[in-house]
Amino acid sequence: RKLGSPLVACLPGTCAPVGAMAGRSRSLVVLPLLAVGVGSQSAHPLKFEFSRESDLFNQGKAIEYFEGKYYNAENRWSLNDDHLQEAVDLGLAAEVEPALALAAAQVLYLFAWFRRSGEIIRENIVASAQLFERSIAVGGCDNSITSESWIEQACDIRFGQAALLYHWLGDTDADAAQRDAFRTRSYGFLNYLKTVPRFAGVAETWTSPMQMNFNQLRFPDKPSKPIWDSSKVPLAMFMEEYYPVFRAELEAIVNHPGDLYEQLRKADGSVESLATPGGWDAIRIVRYGHWNDVFCEVAPNTCALLRTRPELVNCPYVNTNYYKLMPNAHLKPHFGNAPRLTAHLPVIAPEPLRSGISVGHEHSIWQEGRALILDDTFPHSVSHWGKEPRYVLATWFCHPCDENTDHRQTCPDEI
């Protein structure tokens, strides 16, 4: 069977869990490398250890293996054709070994969405959605388990990714019948989630898969929205006030004759697997409390200003970067982690109608000097249709309703 072709699979409660994996806690048994038949001519060995007892172990091993193939010195993070075939083979192997379903789903989503040319490989996305779905039974994720077990067994990932990918496929398929089938599948997962105890507080408000978000699970009685009113968020007003300072130092970096931006990126940049190959990169400013001293030497005013903000410096999961998005680049749909919000300040964005972000069901464009406050725990994606690179100062910061940190913000009554 071709990977990504129609697959009979089951929502929880409609068929039995796969084998002995579902819902059982067993000691980990690591097996030798597995050779699985692909087609009728040959066997392709998996090149990492796997376990029939822990698909989470397999997920970790598979991601570790393919990360080594994905990141490359040319800054066009992608798999070559041979490694793309390995990812496809892993998906086929998961039809034989259910404990590989989650690993294969993640690999196809993270590393095999795009060819190196930037072409989207649609059949891999279909296969990823199907495999996330199959992994639900393997992980024992149903509405009878406790919330603690649900989180421990990564059930949010299995359900959330399946619903997200089927929804994206439903929005983008050219065939009307196939669109409806994908959307029906996506809403099926959403409706099942509403029967799970962990989601009791949001069952009435989530009417679309695009309304799934993790902040609302943390703060079910607080306001929730994909894009907040920036005028009500002090950090947004601060970033807009000091936009000229941020821009002056960034322009000095970008226009430096020694290509200083690229030097900073290579010295301490991010690795990611969300974007069109070569289409998106980052320079770290501060991450989890660790400041990039080299960046702060060349942009001292930027760092000094950011250090004054308690919602950043007192936030244990702060992550502040300059993001550079290239023309014709896209970021695939994805979720962020709670509890946090994200602030975007477009510092150099000369084509305001040519790049934008979708968060849940809401959409916005980047305008220089105008801050956006996003709840990126909603599904979100990015596209750039212009001709010039776009630079955004982006930072995660503590959610105003999080009472566990001294962020000195006020939880709003409305947003």
In this structure, how is the largest beta sheet organized?
7 strands, antiparallel
Mean pLDDT: 90
Coarse structural class: alpha+beta
Low-confidence stretches: 6-42
- Order of strands in the sheet with the most strands? 5-13-10-15-8-6-7
Q: Tell me, what's the shape? A: globular
Tell me the span between the first and last alpha carbons.
49 Å
Number of strands: 15
**Number of DSSP helices?**
14
**What is the percent of helical residues?**
25-40%
Order of helices and strands: EEEEHHHHHHHHEHHHEEHHHEEEEEEEE
Rg result: 22 Å
Query: In what range is the share of β-strand residues?
Result: 15-25%
Question: In words, what does this structure look like?
Answer:
- The protein is α+β, with helices and mostly antiparallel strands and 415 residues long.
- The chain contains 14 helices and 15 strands.
- A hairpin with a 3-residue loop joins strand 2 and strand 3.
- The longest helix has 18 residues.
- 43% of the residues are buried.
- About 9% of the residues have low confidence.
Give structural attributes.
single chain, 415 residues, alpha+beta, 7-stranded antiparallel beta sheet, 4-stranded antiparallel beta sheet, 15 strands
Write the layout of secondary structure elements.
Blueprint (H helix, E strand, L loop, with lengths): L29 E2 L3 E4 L3 E4 L4 E2 L3 H16 L10 H16 L4 H11 L10 H17 L8 H6 L2 H18 L3 H18 L20 H5 L8 E2 L5 H8 L1 H12 L5 H9 L11 E8 L2 E2 L1 H6 L1 H7 L3 H4 L5 E7 L4 E5 L5 E9 L6 E5 L2 E4 L6 E3 L5 E5 L5 E9 L17
Antiparallel strand pairs: 1-4, 2-3, 5-13, 6-7, 6-8, 8-15, 9-14, 10-13, 10-15, 11-12, 11-14
Helix pairs in contact: 1-3, 2-3, 3-4, 4-6, 6-7
